[in-house]
Amino acid sequence: MIPPTTGDNAEDPRADTDSVPASESAESTGDSAVDWDALPGPLCTRLAELAAAALGEMRAGDVPVPLRPVMRFAVAKRAKLGQSNLLAAMRDSAVFRATVLEWCRKNRPGVLEPWQSDPLAAATAAVLLGTVTAPHYVELIGYRSEHGRLRERCDSAVSRAEKLSKENERLRGELAEAREAAQRAEQYSGADADRLRKRLRQQGVQLKEYKDEVARLGAELERLTESKDRELSEIAGERDRERGRALDERARAQRADREAEVARQSAREARRGDEVRLALLLETLEGSVAGLRREIGANRRGDEISGPRPAETVSGVRAHSGTTDDVPDVAALDRLLALPAVHLIVDGYNVTKTGYPDLPLAEQRDRLAHQAAVLAARSGVEVTVVFDGANVVAVPNAGPRGVRVLFSEQGVQADDVIRGLVESEPRGRQLVVATSDREVVDSVRKRGAYAVASAVLLERINPG
Fold first, then answer.
1. Which of 188, 339, 399, 437 could pair with 405 as two cysteines, CB 3.0-4.6 Å apart?
2. More confident position, 306 or 74
């Protein structure tokens, strides 16, 4: 709370500003709680003058619609006649308020000094800059305006009392003269002396009434000053409490929004993953059913089914899965790739360093990706090549057509990415992992994938 000034300091504006903490002089990052509809008259006039001057330099298309009728007026007339519209535009339009602020910085930088000796100028700067002290300055200007009005009333009463006192002195002089005249003409004019005494008594009563009025107005001024001080203190405390509650509510709302967004994103990702897995599983089942129908149709003899039973076929397939020895040659690999909806996952550097380790890493990646693209085009299988991204400076935007090329993130090994790819596939889809890394082989076998040695894959994809 800024205490009112009295006595010799009543006209010293520094007495009203030195009590504001220096920590509140910085610009607020949020909107100050200024009630634009309850600004004091002097502050409204000052803001309207600045807004009217800034309005003259705006382009016609950028001028708010309510202000366009006053554009043709001069600056002074514009500020006087369009004051309400100018203040409403500054209240409702952040763009117009920023335009006025920028004009002041360019043309009148002294207006934006927050610690000016004139409280009205300091309040103008605080409102334009939107500082946290702006509401207090607005209250200070309102208080000073109210105090000025009361002071004018008090000065008027004092002036009237002085006039009455002078009139009383004049009447006393007249009375003295009348007494002298009465003494001279007492024997002739006793009635005139009574009339003058009566008039003197009336003037004395009137003078006493005026003095009582002056005393009453002084007491009223003191009471209003104390009441205003208490109200300002209570308002400041309540606003601090409301600001704290608003900050707490905003923090809780932002935290709830972030948690809700994370939950929605997780649900969307999970739903997309389930949809992809379901689609791949359906594709695998459709291919398997079509293959079984063709197989049954080709081997059916009357009511008997020739060839091995389905259980025996599955047993035979699984008997050749799990280790690098399970796919001993290219023929076994071709049989695996002929299965419906097969997904071939290649351990990139494990294969390239087995086949052509002398080439630079970039050329190794490029060569393997193009060879895998040829294999995908011929066999129709889905191919994913995984490289370790630790030493890759520039990750390519896309690989060859028909091949998905992935790079592990910093701190993540390509082996973990391969395990994640196998884990993400639906149960029942045929997966083939090309690697000679024993740990990778053992981990993908547990998830139902086939393992083929890097040398066997190189024999299949190398020309000649």
1. 399
2. 74
Question: Where do the H-state alpha helices sit in 8-133?
Answer: 14-17, 41-55, 75-81, 83-92, 94-107, 119-129
| Whether 264 and 346 share a structural domain | no
Residues 239 and 340 in one domain: no
Look up residue 198 and give its amino acid. Answer: K
For residues 256 and 358, state if they share a domain: no
| Same domain for 116 and 162 | no
Q: Return the percent helix, strand and coil in the chain, to nearest 5.
A: 70, 5, 25
- The predicted model gives 119-132 an average pLDDT of 76
Task: Report helix, strand or coil for 63.
Answer: coil
Q: What is the pLDDT of residue 124?
A: 78
C-alpha torsion angle, residues 357, 358, 362, 365 (rounded to 10):
-30
Residue span of the structural domain in which 220 resides: 158-269
Per-residue CA distances from 371 to 170, 212, 363, 367 (Å): 123, 110, 12, 6
Q: Which residues contact 462 (CB under 8 A, 6 or more apart)?
A: 355, 371
Q: Pairing relation of β-strands 450-452 and 431-434?
A: parallel
Burial class (CB in 10 A: 0-12, 13-18, 19+), 392: middle
Assess whether 329 and 452 both reside in one domain.
Answer: yes
pLDDT at 374: 92
Summarize the confidence of residues 120-142 as an average pLDDT: 76
Task: Write down the pLDDT at residue 295.
Answer: 57
Lowest-confidence segment of 147-151, 208-212, 262-266, 313-317 by average pLDDT: 313-317
At residue 403, the 3 state secondary structure works out as strand
Q: What is the H or E stretch that residue 336 is in?
A: helix 330-337
Q: How far is CA 212 from the centre of its chain?
A: 60
Residues 163 and 263 grouped into a single domain: yes
Q: What is the pLDDT of residues 198-221, one digit of tens each?
A: 888 888 888 888 889 899 998 989
Is a pLDDT exceeding 50 seen at residue 314? no
User: Could you tell me which of 437, 391, 394, 390 has the C-alpha nearest to residue 418?
Assistant: 437
Over residues 33-57, the mean pLDDT reads 80
**Cα separations (Å) of 416 from 6, 348, 451?**
79, 13, 16
Closest residue by Cα to residue 458 from 367, 379, 351, 325: 351
- Residue 287: which of 382, 401, 422 has the closest Cα? 382
pTM over 0.85, yes/no: no
Is position 286 within any domain? Answer: no
